[in-house]
UniProtKB/TrEMBL annotation:
Pfam families (UniProt xref): HATPase_c_2 (PF13581)
Keyword ATP-binding found: yes
Protein name listed in UniProt: ATP-binding protein
Lineage: Bacteria, Bacillati, Actinomycetota, Actinomycetes, Kitasatosporales
Organism: Streptomyces gossypii
Molecular-function GO terms, alphabetical: ATP binding
Annotated ranges, domain Histidine kinase/HSP90-like ATPase: 12-162
Keywords: ATP-binding, Kinase, Nucleotide-binding, Serine/threonine-protein kinase, Transferase
Superkingdom to which the source organism belongs: Bacteria
Length: 177
């Protein structure tokens, strides 16, 4: 059995805890290990906060969250209609197969991932260690098993997608295998 849901949310701060609570409730009901659920909830919160902060577009004030639990894998995708990630973010090096970054036609500087390493070769943001820009994407990379940052071709906007292998409680309703 699998669980799939999609949300169309307004680009406002109150949407972030809403998405997180829906994910946590789904994970709890399905029987996912609480530690794994927490890690996914933090990663989702960071991706949603990025969409709220950087996904500005004059056509729409919304972003989309899609999540799927299928077998032992959870896949989450957050898409915003903004200008997309800067080229430095989407073209940064792949770390041991953990992160994949792909530039679409809209991969221009100053987009959704502003402050995520643009201008220094795609590495961690320059500046003092207390700088906050770019930490959310790094946190997602740390918490998930596979992460992909890319820009939507033609229509514009940033996409953050990530996967995590699930662990189950003993009393899980959907335990795979």
């Amino acid at each position: 059995m699998s669980i799939w849901w999609s949300l169309h949310l307004r680009r406002e701060a109150a949407s972030v805890p809403l998405a997180r609570r829906l994910l946590l409730g789904t994970m709890e009901t399905a029987g996912v290990d609480p530690e794994i659920s927490f890690e996914l909830a933090v990663a989702l919160s960071e991706a949603c906060a990025n969409a709220v902060e950087h996904g500005l577009n004059e056509r729409t004030d919304a972003y989309r969250v899609t999540a799927c639990i299928d077998g032992d894998m959870c896949h989450i995708e957050v898409t915003d209609p903004g200008p997309g990630f800067p080229a430095a973010t989407v073209s940064r090096a792949v770390r041991a197969g953990v992160t994949e970054s792909v530039a679409g036609p809209g991969g221009s500087p100053g987009g959704s991932g502003a402050g995520t390493g643009a201008g220094n070769g795609g590495g961690p943001p320059e500046g003092p260690p207390i700088a906050e820009d770019g930490r959310g994407l790094c946190l997602i990379e740390t918490l998930a098993d596979h992460v992909r940052f890319h820009n939507r071709p033609n229509s514009g906007g940033a996409v953050v997608s990530f996967d995590k292998i699930l662990k189950w409680r003993d009393d899980a309703l959907l335990k795979a295998g």
